[in-house]
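Weekly sync, protein design subgroup
Attendees: M.S., D.O., the rotation student, P.L. (late)

Item 1: inverse folding check
M.S. brought a backbone from last month's batch and wanted to see whether the design step gives back something sensible before we order anything. D.O. pointed out we never logged the input encoding, so this time it goes straight into the notes. Structure tokens as presented (91 positions):
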């Protein structure tokens, strides 16, 4: 029962977030920050779903591991770039 409630809460929160972000994006579709937020939130939803399905001891094909590694590397690169940019702005 608790698991069902948590799933329902997650679905409701995700839907509310999606509606708010999409409405904001429709007001100014050229806003790159909104586009990135939409993409990151979509990724976040999928990541949370995957995390909930993976069990200790699960085995994965090499291509799955490769895609996760690549996605992690890309996000880390953007994060490091953004945090470095913020650090240089504060100097």
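Designed sequence read out in the meeting:
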């Amino acid at each position: 029962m608790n698991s069902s409630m948590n799933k329902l809460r997650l679905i409701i929160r995700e839907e509310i977030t999606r509606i708010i972000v999409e409405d904001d994006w429709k007001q100014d579709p050229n806003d790159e920050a909104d586009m990135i937020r939409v993409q990151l939130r979509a990724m976040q939803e999928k990541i949370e779903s995957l995390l909930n399905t993976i069990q200790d001891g699960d085995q994965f094909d090499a291509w799955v591991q490769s895609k996760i590694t690549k996605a992690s590397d890309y996000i880390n690169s953007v994060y490091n770039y953004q945090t470095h940019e913020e650090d240089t702005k504060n100097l």
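Discussion: The chain has a mean pLDDT of 82. The chain has two domains: 1-58, 60-91.
Action: P.L. to compare against the previous round before Friday.
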